[in-house]
Amino acid sequence: MRYDNIIWDFDGTLFDTYPPMCRDLQSVMAALGVLLPLEDLLAHFTRSRGEVLDYCAAQAGMDAEAVDRVYRDWVTQHGQPKALPFPHAEEMLRRFQAAGGRNFVFTHRSGSVHDYLAGAGLTGYFQDVVSAGTRFERKPSPAGNLYLLSTHGLDPARTLAVGDRELDMLAAKGAGVDGCRFTPEGEAEEESCARWHIRSFAELAEILELPEEEAR
């Protein structure tokens, strides 16, 4: 294989969480008297959570932290949005693990990442799951990636970071590992420091040079 280890982003990479999160945010903003198109929320969210909060705050005449507090209260009352892994995500994880590869996660999401993974039966595919927050700086800081490299003795030259945003690619570059940009809905931004760009996990399997899976 070309790589022995993958450090995965979670939201927008392993799980298709942006649409349900944006639908919840749309409901939150509607309750504040601000009607926003879902496609506008998604366009901002796919670049960064901070950007969509700034956008919502500007439309509502609030500050971003206030919008974030209202949104978090909504999630506390209604629960995390229901979301599923992207098509063929489990197959990708299984094939890579079966070929001797190791999977890791570095995400901005807090403890709910474990609930999503467990609910989809994916927990066993991961060696470690690291969340940004009080322990690590958020991306584009490479802090979480560097922690995984050091803690698990990963060879940077044999490690790939997969994520859907440019900040994931910057975090990969900062840790000295190759980045792979996953954009299932369309083109990546023109300027990117990613080494690879994929729109499906089938393309990732080719990059990894994975052996074909035996019939099950």
What would your notes on this structure say?
With 216 residues, this protein is of the alpha/beta class. The protein is 43% helix and 13% strand. Helix 1 (18-31) crosses helix 2 (38-45) and helix 3 crosses helix 4 (64-78). It has nine helices and six strands, in the order βαααααβαβαβαββα. Strands 3-2-1-4-5-6 form a six-stranded parallel sheet, with helices on both faces.
Give descriptors for this structure:
alpha/beta, globular, 9 helices, 2 domains, Rossmann fold, 6 strands, about 220 residues, six-stranded parallel β-sheet
Describe the structure concisely for a colleague.
The protein has 9 helices and 6 strands; from the N terminus they run E-H-H-H-H-H-E-H-E-H-E-H-E-E-H. The protein is of the alpha/beta class.
Tell me the number of structural domains.
Answer: 2
Q: Provide the CATH superfamily of the largest domain.
A: HAD superfamily/HAD-like
Kindly estimate the percentage of residues that lie in beta strands according to DSSP.
5-15%
Average pLDDT value? 93
Query: Which structural class fits the helix and strand makeup?
Result: alpha/beta
The N- and C-terminal alpha carbons lie at a distance of 22 Å
The share of residues in helices is 40-55%
The outline comes out as globular
The level-1 CATH class of the largest domain: Alpha Beta
Order of secondary-structure elements: EHHHHHEHEHEHEEH
Which fold does the CATH topology of the largest domain refer to? Rossmann fold
Strand order, sheet with most strands: 3-2-1-4-5-6
Any low-confidence stretches, pLDDT <50, length ≥5?
A: none
* CATH architect. name of the largest domain: 3-Layer(aba) Sandwich
Q: Mind describing the biggest β-sheet?
A: 6 strands, parallel
* Count of helix runs: 9
User: Which radius of gyration do the C-alpha atoms yield?
Assistant: 18 Å
What is the number of beta strands?
A: 6
